[in-house]
């Protein structure tokens, strides 16, 4: 008991000094569990996140756009793999995590349960969704768990490229025909609020934040990061002539931040409990992709058994 207490104290001291925890270091069970929860949800999000955009690879409007989109979707697969690997350093079993996802028992980001109905949605995802991810993940790159923070460094570099390609699609459409401008604005209208929801519930309704902030897994609260995203995105929208679909949005000269309207938390709760517009479709697609990939896993296992045992 005394030993656990002193280990716990040493752990808390290390966190307080801003030092990084590595897989072989002692850690409280709750720290390990919270990280497995959050990191596995993050890995699942990257993998499910390939679906809405993958949907447009065959319909991209030019060869260049197709190449860029293909590269982006492959990057997301890579992000999933880094984060699953980082989660395994905590003793989690990747197969179990994936089984939980496919059984509908694991969460993944709410944002990927919305449909991509036209090409402008690909611009909106790159700009807004990857933009939100960068704000969130730049903070996570300084989190207290070493493997997760290191995975975030590379991921953020790739997300920056994704963000720029999305913004460029939107900017190009806003310089196009009236119909293209309307498509871009329509995508903006549909993706703005779901992008704000990516940061999670408001601070007063975020049960995990207390632990995660104390342990410096989260360095900023959900609302702080959401505000940071709004402050940096509104001027970008204005620069290309897009309107933010929020009548209550206004700049506050005293706080030096934008004030925004109320988020529809009922919608958020419905989406994260499996009842968003595309939850069922996404899960069916993932299950099919997993089944279609079975022969690859079997071949890799057979090769490993022959050469490495
Ligand atoms: N969607 O206590 P809270 C990407 C859940 S991938 C679904 O505030 P926490 C990309 C939350 O899990 C982006 N569920 O939680 C990929 C919790 O449920 P449980 C993914 C959400 O963990 C491809 C409950 O609500 N990024 O960028 O303190 C293409 C209460 O919430 C959501 C990450 O995963 C949500 N939006 O904070 C393009 C980043 N929000 O587990 C782009 C890592 C909350 O208690 N994760 N919930 O049943 C995080 O930073 C944090 O986990 C969150 C939530 C800020 C998301």
Describe the structure.
This protein is mainly alpha-helical and 309 residues long. The protein has helices at 2-16, 29-48, 50-54, 63-88, 94-102, 119-140, 146-174, 178-197, 209-214, 222-239, 265-275, 279-292, 294-308, and strands spanning 250-252, 257-259. The longest helix has 29 residues, at 146-174. The protein is globular, with a radius of gyration of 21 Å.
Short description:
This protein is an all-alpha fold and 309 residues long. The protein has helices at 2-16, 29-48, 50-54, 63-88, 94-102, 119-140, 146-174, 178-197, 209-214, 222-239, 265-275, 279-292, 294-308, and strands spanning 250-252, 257-259.
Oligomer: single chain
**The biggest beta sheet, please?**
2 strands, antiparallel
Query: Element order, helices and strands?
Result: HHHHHHHHHHEEHHH
- As laid out across the biggest beta sheet, the strand order is 1-2
Structural class: mainly alpha
**β content, as a range?**
under 5%
Number of strands: 2
Total helices: the number is 13
Overall body shape: globular
Unreliable stretches: none
Bound molecules: benzoyl coenzyme A
Task: Estimate percent helicity.
Answer: 55-70%
End-to-end separation in angstroms reads 41 Å
How confident is the prediction overall: mean pLDDT?
Answer: 96
